[in-house]
Design a protein that fits this description.
Blueprint (H helix, E strand, L loop, with lengths): L2 E3 L2 H6 L32 H12 L3 E4 L6 H8 L5 E4 L3 H15 L2 E6 L4 H13 L4 E7 L22 H7 L5 E4 L5 H15 L3 E6 L17 E3 L6 H16 L5 E4 L9 H11 L2 E4 L14 E4 L9 H7 L3 E4 L20 E5 L2 E4 L4 E3 L3 H9 L7 H9 L17 H11 L4 E5 L3 H7 L8 E4 L8 H12 L4 E7 H7 L3 H6 L5 E6 L4 H6 L12 H9 L5 E6 L2 H12 L6 E7 L7 H14 L7
Helix pairs in contact: 2-3, 2-7, 4-5, 4-15, 8-11, 9-11, 13-20
Length: 606
């Protein structure tokens, strides 16, 4: 069955439903049998065609920063009904917002200006690439007449070669379209957008600044909705892979399942859960896959993260005689400095289009979703590992209760955040100790969860919160952000207010880069303390709905949460939580020492 993306009218009717489910990350199928209409000649322009395409695929909010090379293009985006242009404070945050938007909606788009804007947004696009997110990065480029003219332009490094920006984007996008004439612009735009959707990676589109407003015959009709042919497994390889995997797992005594982050790009979360339902194995997730697998599943045992796993989870996974990892990434952070006790000869590794069984055969052209569903029909039910987990499991204790006017502790904070979670909320966890504290939250069914573990760019969460909240307006976003990260990207709290968002931000003020402290301490990890609530009040400036407060004690925290979820439930709520500089999760302490050891390995002998 073809995947048909978009129809402008259908998209406008239910624009908040367009795109992906948060846990699957794929664009919805929208069919429209309405005949394509002829467009008014004045609207038959490159700019309007690009705008229509964005609306069709579900990117109905576009994050932008104006610059002289993209102003005419922005005019045409603003003129498109159904498309909302959101101005951000800087390009980096616009890119992060597009990342967050794509996580919820399934695709996102941003528009910046040539080079100074493009190179500023580049870091965010690299992060989206690492997380397999379809992001359309549009840059307003030079006048088409200037290419090859040997002229030197502003917003460049002073050379007549305009390709610097393009070369930078080539390594972090899966397709690059340079639009400097109208004859092939239609084809290049459509190829770029469809490639982003098919590959689930960012693409780069540069639009000459003199082209968006010029009518052209290729734009004279409403664009035909995309029809993306689905990728198919090689049936012979699929059958062979399933047979080999079933034989391997069915002879195991206590096999387990572990979900990885590539479940999203493979659109295989549902297939993975179906396999878990069938086989009865103990079910865990890697930390970077939190939110992709339902934690209310009866055989769910927590997060497998080596030495900092959920209690009793690592013992079950690492003692298993067979494990199936679906979509894993084994980087240094996830493997806790390469200290995970996983043996290749016990593992089936299922990647988006490849299956590797222990030290034995590998099977290509096998899609993860197809493989997991076919395997579920061939596998024997085996609950041994889960029964072992159930026998050794001891319910976790509760943190010591704070005495009246005792300094608030981080574990108490997250105990209260846990109580706030429901199917109507989503959690955004910033790089840092929030990784570890949020990882321990138990997500109710339907609760969203996002963080950026592979790329780990501090400050990501401010922009990502803006984008996610804009895409998922049916959820209240709860963002957990450290003070050091917030200082990198704080400005776009302003944009949250302009968009009338009602996010709750917990700003955890512990005076520095705590995650860096636990890897390698030094004076550079101490930051200048800000009056964070005062800063947000200044940004608010009486425009929009905003409420801020500082909390130092549990009693104040309880009152603040009650206010944020009660009288101020329709406001952006900013709660600055002041804690001791050494108040960290025990998992960060363990993880930091192991990552430090991995970072400080001496050179191999020459």
């Amino acid at each position: 069955m073809d995947l048909t993306i978009g129809a402008i009218d259908a998209c406008r009717k239910t624009c908040t439903d367009v795109g992906s489910l948060p846990h699957n990350g794929f664009v919805s199928t929208i069919h429209d049998s309405t005949p394509l209409t002829v467009i008014n000649p004045s609207d038959s322009t490159l700019g309007r065609h690009l705008a229509r395409r964005l609306v069709q695929i579900g990117a109905t909010d576009v994050f932008s920063v104006p610059g002289d090379f993209n102003l005419t293009l922005l005019d045409h985006l603003v003129a498109e009904p159904g498309l909302n242009l959101i101005g951000c404070c800087n390009e980096l945050n616009a890119g992060y917002a597009t990342d967050g938007y794509a996580r919820s909606r399934g695709v996102g788009a941003c528009v910046v200006t040539f080079t100074v804007g493009g190179l500023s947004v580049l870091n965010a696009i690299a992060g989206a690439y690492s997380e397999n997110l379809p992001v359309i990065c549009i840059v307003g480029g030079p006048n088409s007449n200037d290419y090859g003219s040997n002229r030197i332009l502003h917003h460049t490094i002073g050379l007549p070669d305009f390709s610097q920006e393009l070369r930078c984007f080539q390594t972090v996008t899966c397709f690059q379209a340079l639009l400097n004439n109208l004859e092939d612009a239609h084809e290049l735009i459509d190829t770029a957008i469809s490639t982003a959707l098919k590959e689930s990676k960012p693409v780069y589109i540069s639009v000459g600044c003199n082209l968006p407003a010029i009518p052209h015959p290729t734009f004279s009709r409403e664009p035909v909705p995309f029809s993306l042919n689905p990728r198919l497994s090689n049936q012979m390889d699929l059958e062979a892979a399933v047979e080999a995997a079933a034989e391997f797992l069915n002879k195991a005594v206590k096999p387990v399942l572990v979900g990885g982050p590539k479940l999203r790009v493979s659109k295989a979360s549902n297939a993975f859960v179906e396999l878990a339902d069938t086989c009865g194995y103990a079910l865990a997730v890697m930390p970077s896959a939190k939110g992709l697998v339902p934690e209310h599943h009866p055989h769910f045992i927590g997060t497998y993260w080596g030495a900092v796993s959920t209690a009793f989870c690592a013992e079950i996974v690492e003692s298993a005689d067979a494990y199936l990892f679906a979509g894993p990434i084994f980087n240094d952070y996830i493997s806790v400095g390469y200290t995970q006790l996983i043996k290749k000869e016990k593992a089936i590794i299922v990647q988006p289009d490849r299956v590797v069984i222990a030290n034995g055969p590998a099977f290509g052209c096998v899609l993860m979703k197809d493989f997991l569903r076919a395997l579920a029909k061939r596998i024997k039910r085996n609950t041994t590992a889960y029964e072992n987990y159930h026998r050794i499991y001891v319910p976790e204790g509760h943190p010591l209760k704070c005495e009246p006017n005792e300094a608030l502790r981080v574990n108490i904070l997250f105990q209260h955040i846990q109580k706030m979670l429901s199917s109507d909320t989503a959690v955004i966890a910033e790089t840092g100790d929030s990784w570890f504290n949020c990882q321990k939250l138990k997500l109710p069914e339907g609760c969203g969860y996002e963080f950026q573990m592979q790329y780990g760019s501090i400050g990501w969460s401010v922009g990502a919160t803006l984008g996610y909240a804009q895409a998922a307006q049916n959820k209240r976003v709860i963002a957990c952000i450290g003070d050091g990260s917030f200082q990198v990207t704080a400005q776009d709290v302003s944009t949250m207010l302009r968009c009338e968002q009602r996010t709750i931000i917990f700003l955890i003020n512990n005076g520095g880069y705590t995650i860096e402290v636990e890897i390698h301490d030094g004076p550079y990890n101490v930051i200048k303390n800000w009056n964070y609530t005062g800063l947000v009040d200044a940004i608010h400036n009486g425009e929009g709905k905003c409420w801020t407060t500082k909390v130092r004690y549990e009693e104040e925290l309880i009152e603040a949460i009650n206010t944020a979820t009660g009288d101020k439930k329709d406001c952006l709520c900013f709660i600055e939580v002041i804690v001791h500089k050494d108040d960290t999760s025990k998992e960060l302490l363990e993880w930091g020492s192991r990552v430090s050891a991995a970072n400080s390995r001496p050179p191999n002998p020459q």
